[in-house]
Amino acid sequence: AAGVIQSPRHLIKEKRETATLKCYPIPRHDTVYWYQQGPGQDPQFLISFYEKMQSDKGSIPDRFSAQQFSDYHSELNMSSLELGDSALYFCASSHENTIYFGEGSWLTVV
Amino acid sequence: GQQLNQSPQSMFIQEGEDVSMNCTSSSIFNTWLWYKQEPGEGPVLLIALYKAGELTSNGRLTAQFGITRKDSFLNISASIPSDVGIYFCAGQLGNAGNMLTFGGGTRLMVKP
């Protein structure tokens, strides 16, 4: 079965650079979530979209923005990267309340 | 905000033993989800619970949605080495798109 697809899987950026992560939800899923997970931490909610509109907002820094496009894929844009942004970023998708996660994108800021 | 207390934080058991872990919250949830995560990978959905009192099984896994809607447990019977990983509970209140709140995770280690 098709899963949530995230790209890139690994990304290395320097401080103050910009990074964009992409997420392709499971077909017919209308909701996308973004999470950030630091080493040894549980996933922290950043932001979500339902039917291309922002649905809920968590601890997303002002330097980050995201959107969901007409084909339901989503992108997380991160600017002015800091060392502390190094983490595993997950996208998840759902139709109603069953939420499936992608494999994640590893971001390393050096 | 909502917080989930998950316990135990870690378990080191013998292969073949049963395992039980639980999550409690100060707030109610409409949905409880249980995930397993292995290092460097995404959380994999194990069981989803949608109604208070619901008891659901998935192979050797059984989970229940507490009657008060503030707690849930996950049991694993006859553990095997491939059960090793971190198990997370997660709760969601409201409609699609509302944030999913995670517990702190239970790290399970199984000795063959």
Describe what you observe in this structure:
The complex is a heterodimer of chains A (110) and B (112). Chain A is mainly β and 110 residues long. Chain A is 0% helix and 55% strand. Chain A contains no helices and eleven strands. Chain A has strands spanning 5-7, 10-13, 19-24, 31-37, 44-50, 53-57, 64-68, 74-78, 87-95, 98-101, 105-109. In chain A, the strands form two sheets. In chain A, strands 2, 4, 5, 6, 9, 10 and 11 form a seven-stranded mixed sheet that branches. In chain A, a hairpin with a 6-residue loop joins strand 4 (31-37) and strand 5. The radius of gyration of chain A is 13 Å and the shape is globular. The relative contact order of chain A is 0.34. Chain B is mainly β. Chain B is 0% helix and 54% strand. Chain B contains no helices and eleven strands. In chain B, the strands form two sheets. In chain B, strands 2, 4, 5, 9, 10 and 11 form a six-stranded mixed sheet that branches. In chain B, strands 1-3-8-7-6 form a five-stranded antiparallel sheet, with no helix packed on it. The radius of gyration of chain B is 13 Å and the shape is globular. Classes of the chains: A mainly beta (110), B mainly beta (112).
Q: Secondary-structure element order of chain B, as H and E?
A: EEEEEEEEEEE
Straight-line N-to-C gap of chain A: 36 Å
Helix content of chain B: under 10%
Overall helicity of chain A: under 10%
Give the DSSP E fraction of chain B (strand runs of 2 or more residues).
over 45%
| Pattern of helices and strands of chain A | EEEEEEEEEEE
Helix/strand/pairing category of chain B:
mainly beta
